[in-house]
Automatic annotation (TrEMBL), chain A:
<dbReference type="InterPro" id="IPR027417">
    <property type="entry name" value="P-loop_NTPase"/>
</dbReference>
<dbReference type="GO" id="GO:0042941">
    <property type="term" value="P:D-alanine transmembrane transport"/>
</dbReference>
<dbReference type="Pfam" id="PF12399">
    <property type="entry name" value="BCA_ABC_TP_C"/>
</dbReference>
<dbReference type="GO" id="GO:0005304">
    <property type="term" value="F:L-valine transmembrane transporter activity"/>
</dbReference>
<dbReference type="GO" id="GO:0005524">
    <property type="term" value="F:ATP binding"/>
</dbReference>
<dbReference type="GO" id="GO:1903805">
    <property type="term" value="P:L-valine import across plasma membrane"/>
</dbReference>
<keyword id="KW-0813">Transport</keyword>
<dbReference type="InterPro" id="IPR003593">
    <property type="entry name" value="AAA+_ATPase"/>
</dbReference>
<protein>
    <submittedName>
        <fullName>ABC transporter</fullName>
    </submittedName>
</protein>
TrEMBL record, chain B:
<protein>
    <submittedName>
        <fullName>ABC transporter</fullName>
    </submittedName>
</protein>
<keyword id="KW-0813">Transport</keyword>
<comment type="similarity">
    <text>Belongs to the binding-protein-dependent transport system permease family. LivHM subfamily.</text>
</comment>
<feature type="transmembrane region" description="Helical">
    <location>
        <begin position="6"/>
        <end position="29"/>
    </location>
</feature>
<dbReference type="InterPro" id="IPR052157">
    <property type="entry name" value="BCAA_transport_permease"/>
</dbReference>
<feature type="transmembrane region" description="Helical">
    <location>
        <begin position="92"/>
        <end position="110"/>
    </location>
</feature>
<feature type="transmembrane region" description="Helical">
    <location>
        <begin position="262"/>
        <end position="283"/>
    </location>
</feature>
<keyword id="KW-1003">Cell membrane</keyword>
<feature type="transmembrane region" description="Helical">
    <location>
        <begin position="130"/>
        <end position="156"/>
    </location>
</feature>
Amino acid sequence: MTALLDLSGLRKSYGALVVADAIDLSVSAGEAVGIIGPNGAGKSTLFNLISGDVRPDAGTVRLDGEDITHLPPHARARRGIGRSYQIPLPFARMSVYENLLVGARHAGRGRVADPARHCGAILERTGLLDAADRPAGRLTLLDRKRLELARALATAPRLLLLDEIAGGLTDAEAHALVETIAAVRASADVAIVWIEHVLHALLPAIGRLVVLDFGRVLAEGAPQEVMAREAVRAVYLGVEDPV
Amino acid sequence: MRPVDVIVQGVLVGGLYTLFATGLSLIFGVMRLVNLAHGDLIVLGAYMGIVTTQALGLSPFASLLVVVPAMAALGYALQRLLLNRTLGDDPLPPLLVTFGLSIVIQNALLEGFTADDRKLAIGSLATRSLALPGGIAVGWFPLIVLACAIAVIAGLQALLYRTAWGAALRATSDDPVTVRLMGVDQRHMYAMAMAVALAVCGVAGVLLACWTNVDPGAGPQRLLYGFEAVIIGGLGSLWGTLAGGLILGIAQAVGAAIDPAFQILAGHLAFLLVLLIAPRGLLPRMAA
């Protein structure tokens, strides 16, 4: 069986700075993979390479066996790659509902039968139903984070890339957001790749953990087992207590 | 002339100015691009109308069926092949490229059609008028132009705020990078916006040539009127552009009633006055 996402030999450097150094990574349909690593380890670059914001110097990106290495971001979105940014960037002058509708109607074309109902269901699930008609630029941070997730879900992704979605939230808020993500996974066949610094939010929600350091995969495996490794503890020492 | 009559005539010519301004307003609103060739593209539309009526024997209004799609196609190609490459953080390249385009269009028209001025004949429609109570006569043709302007603004407004395409265009205007994650190709959206803008230029050009004489050098003044209407109304607001066009028309009519030599200067003075009172225009788009 081909993997949903397959990265092989991905390499990207900016001058002497290597941000992705021969990365190999596969994600199966419906899987949840967490990605951690110190600042500058190449986590966001990895997402940029998958979503198409950045083209690799070498290597390939495959979605369902199809080589998408040279496709622009909008074409990848239409094939089912959804993404949330670390810093929420809503379409500020549009309503929350309209923010979702754009993705449902364009990226989701073919997968979303009824965009209005699809968006309504996502608004309800992400707790944004009451804010549906408000301009997205006037939301609180928590609601902006929810919108960032909701907007990515509106594209009906098969692969969802979450970039530090729990960052900047209180524990209770982060917990609620994680529960929403768990509910989404339970109801839709969507694979998740999740970058997160907030480990207590991340670890229970994922099936596999990947540690990046200096653009390379340092460790990969079951979350608790990976976190126990000496090399990982060394990288994380002073950053966050993994236990 | 009596005051009411002056204002009515001003509103009518304001319809034409609104059509000059609509494409500029749309393009600036969507991609922050100031198209210095806009006036020359209107004149190009006028010449397309002249050629079409002569070659195919169509009436000026029927020529719109050819001119509007042709201008739209030109707009799509122009944006996709040339102007998209100039967009970025630096506002200078689009200004320089469209300024160059303006010179190219003017000289190409001069080469193809000489410097003689031309006009589209609309027969008896040019002189027929509607008698309003109070002894005011309103020309049918200017009335049609005003109706066109209102229809174009209302149509664009509906396109932007009532359709999926419009939502994608507004999202592109808001954030051209993030919109790609929603499956929208921002280069295509920009090209579509320019296609719509030039389609309106085609309408404006044909109606301009029906209204008055045009020559290859007539573009820059139309750009200036269009620009003033956009600024008076407020950047990025289509209804504001209509208001701006009408105010400019009225100001010119009032100026002309005082002294015919004062007509154009009065329009510019009204523009300055609005800038003094409301620097962001009368109906600026809401800040987020």
